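User: Run a structure prediction on this.
Assistant: Running it now.
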Amino acid sequence: MRRILWTCALFLALGALLNVIVAWGCALSIDVFEGLKIEQGSAITPEGTWYVYRYQRRGAVWFDSTHTQGGELPEGASGAPPATLVHGWSGFATPTPSAIVDMRTGDARGWPALSLWYEVRRQSYMTEGGWLEQGIRGGIETPLAPWTLGNRSFPRVMPLRPIWTGCAANTALYGVVLWLVVRGPRTVRRYDRRRRGRCLSCGYDLGHVKHDVCPECGTA
């Protein structure tokens, strides 16, 4: 039993490591802005107005949120409800209480589920201190060429903040796949030998053997 638990723990740890590697690979290789239409939405909230726009590709999602105290939507404004374009784990639905204008960007990566993300809290206008630009939070900026969106550029960042549901799902999936690759063939071979009455270690036919050990390899 202890051996089984250690084996499960080992493959889950390897699955967790692979989850991080895949998420970072998505962060460095997937241009989320390339060839996709924007999703956008706006709404009046108790705090004021809220604008969101989002780009999404397999393995990546990027969304920009702006809360403004007071104000009104322009005539003819339409689109999806903003809350559907930001993910619950980002916390972007709740504006910073001390911000008159709260501008935040989120970037999440991972496959098949999003599992790691980082935030850029940019140019928020605070009631004390005026405009405040806080930069990247929860990620490591790399020296690679930045992504571009119109006349704006965004650095390639390796995200560090976990999205727990995505991390759990990816870790379990990768752990199972690694187990199937490493231990699957051996398990199938032992099952087949047991079914045919052969030694589990060497495959020797035990049909006429009356001893408790295999005469070929000595395995019990």
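The helical segments are 2-29, 164-182, 184-195.
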